[in-house]
Design brief:
The structure holds two protein chains of two kinds. Chain A is mainly alpha-helical. Chain A contains ten helices and no strands. In chain A, about 75% of the residues lie in helices and about 0% in strands. Chain B is elongated and about 90 Å long. In chain B, the strands form three sheets. In chain B, strands 1, 5, 6, 7, 8, 9, 10, 11 and 12 form a nine-stranded mixed sheet that branches. By secondary structure, chain B is an alpha/beta fold. In chain B, strand 9, helix 6 and strand 10 form a beta-alpha-beta unit. The N and C termini of chain B lie far apart (about 60 Å). Classes of the chains: A mainly alpha, B alpha/beta. Chain B: Belongs to the bacterial solute-binding protein 3 family. Chain B: Keywords: Signal, Transport.
């Protein structure tokens, strides 16, 4: 075993190997948090759409979920990065390819965000549907508009209920972010491959990068557990179980 | 029967004449091959023209041909009537661990023989020499490093074009934006779709990618040689007996006309499956390697 290899200078010109890992972690965290922000926003909207009385809107929400859930993530990123610029008008395509700032990062954040949004949407709508129907009816009877019913009654309760499955999704987005390697983002798996290729020290490299992923997932897990306790309301079903 | 000194000496002599090679006890990989009657050869699925899969059933290529010569020679040396050869596909990531844990006995791909790798594995005498250069769109007007200033340049994970460029005299004065493909296909796609102005890689790989593209005439390999590296056949470390067997077999091919036929077959003639011709003349560097075989790493 050769754990000291992490202190050795890498031949990439970017400093010692541990610095490559740190750099990879930076991109992994950036793309995961960025993607998660989009996933929460878009996923909540689509999730709500799937519960409204309007059939067309429900259909649109369902279509989004089916489309984004049934195409492999790597293929989706590939479509955004390589195919989209070719099918758009030439000027737009050229802008995407040559002028978009941080093209790999931006594409990865949007691609990962929209993919995860489909999964968040299912949970948001499931959370809303799990509430007793009387809740919405009572709100409407009291004179709330439908928007107010969602914002003040349904969503605050639904989001508390779905914190555990959202935790899984939040952890997944860190792991899924590794596919951004496919469009050239120098995230953790990229740096791991680079280190394996240059140092030929395989087992130790993979072991350490695995630990980095576990650490990231554990941080997310603990944060969400804290959030669940912090927002719980004693007596409601989303009481956190304690 | 009385054992007379004369009979004894005759017996000893007979034993020596009959089995000269067994005078030395077999160890390591040779012993493993002799005992099991099989040799496992690591091959690549898509490293044209070194090692690749044809019609989903046959591994072919320059390296595979060389390895088959080694296998024949080992079979002869061990006096085996039958030796089953198992082709085990490997990737850039799996080849070293699979060699170390004993899954494969020889690796016949496109593996650079480097000093770093020699800490983990051994190499047979170098079998090829590649030069790192760049492929560009033929109409881009890029002729050399100096034209790359401010442009995006792609390379494949595990190699760093930036490092090669900066090490070059011209390179210190220019600034490039690095892009990375997860494999050579993706890197080439970035060049093809104009995301990158140049693809920096081993010249043989570039020639193969260009020959395989839709319009080979759209691309050109240009500019300075950024670096040069030998390719080797990988073996397990600390196995001098097997290493000698492999080197002897390779040297015999290198010293004869055979290697020139083999080179012409893969680099200067149409190769399957599409009948593409890479049209790469043999470099002086490679000729020198065949004249004076060695296993020096880069």
């Amino acid at each position: 075993m050769n754990w000291g290899v992490f202190l050795e200078e890498s031949p990439t010109g970017d400093g010692p190997y541990w610095k490559l890992a740190l750099d990879g972690a930076k991109w992994t965290v950036l793309v995961s948090l960025g993607g998660w922000a989009i996933a929460l926003l878009v996923g909540s909207l689509i999730g709500i759409l799937r519960t409204v009385p309007n059939k067309l809107l429900v259909w649109l929400g369902d279509a989004y979920v089916e489309l984004f859930r049934n195409i492999p993530l790597l293929v989706q990123l590939f479509l955004w990065f390589f195919v989209l610029p070719e099918v758009l008008p030439e000027a737009v395509g050229r802008w995407l390819k040559q002028d978009l700032p941080y093209p790999e990062l931006t594409t990865a954040i949007i691609g990962l965000g929209l993919f995860t949004a489909a999964r968040v949407a299912v949970q948001v709508s499931a959370g809303i549907k799990s509430l007793p129907r009387g809740q919405a009816a009572a709100g409407l009877a009291l004179g709330f508009t439908r928007t107010e019913v969602y914002l003040k009654i349904l969503l605050p309760q639904a989001f508390r209920i779905i914190i555990p499955p959202l935790t899984s999704e939040f952890m997944s987005i860190f792991k899924n972010s590794s596919v951004a390697l496919g469009i050239g983002l120098t995230e953790l798996v990229f740096q791991m491959r680079q280190m394996v290729e240059y140092s030929s020290v395989v087992i130790e490299t993979i072991a350490v990068y695995t630990l980095i992923y576990i650490a990231l997932a554990l941080i997310v897990n603990r944060f969400m557990a804290w959030l669940e306790r912090a927002v719980r309301i004693p007596g409601l079903i989303a009481g956190g179980g304690k | 029967m009385r054992v007379t000194p004369k009979l004894l000496s005759t017996l000893v002599l007979a034993a020596f004449i009959a089995q000269p090679t067994l005078a030395e006890e077999l160890t390591g990989t040779l012993k493993k091959i002799k005992d099991s009657g099989r040799i496992v050869v690591g091959v690549r699925d898509a490293s044209q023209p070194f090692s690749y899969l044809l019609n989903d059933k046959q591994y072919v290529g320059y390296s595979v041909d060389l390895c088959n010569k080694v296998v024949d020679s080992v079979k002869k040396q061990l006096k085996l009537s039958a030796l089953s050869v198992i082709y085990q596909p490997v990737t850039s990531q799996t080849r070293i661990p699979l060699m170390q844990n004993g899954t494969i006995d020889l690796e016949c791909g496109s593996t650079t023989n480097s000093m770093e790798r020699q800490k983990q594995v051994a190499f047979g005498n170098n079998m090829f020499w590649v030069n790192v250069r760049m492929a560009v769109k033929a109409n881009s007007g890029i002729k050399g490093l100096a034209d790359l200033n401010g442009k995006p340049v792609v390379t494949t994970t595990g190699t760093t074009s930036d490092r090669y460029i900066k090490q070059h005299e011209v390179g210190s004065k220019i600034d490039v934006k690095n892009l990375y493909g997860k494999d050579h296909d993706e890197s080439f796609l970035m060049l093809e779709t104009d995301r990158a102005a140049a693809f920096v890689m081993d010249d043989t790989l570039l020639a193969a990618k260009i020959a395989n593209s839709r319009n080979p005439a759209d691309f050109a390999i240009v500019g300075e040689i950024l670096s040069g590296e030998p390719y080797g056949i990988m073996l397990r470390k600390d196995d001098p007996q097997f290493k000698k067997a492999v080197d002897d077999a390779l040297n015999a091919v290198y010293k004869s006309k055979e290697i020139y036929n083999l080179y012409a077959k893969w680099f200067q003639s149409p190769i399957p499956p599409k009948g593409l011709n890479l049209r790469m003349p043999m470099s002086d560097k490679l000729k020198a390697l065949f004249d004076n075989p060695n296993d020096k790493g880069a």
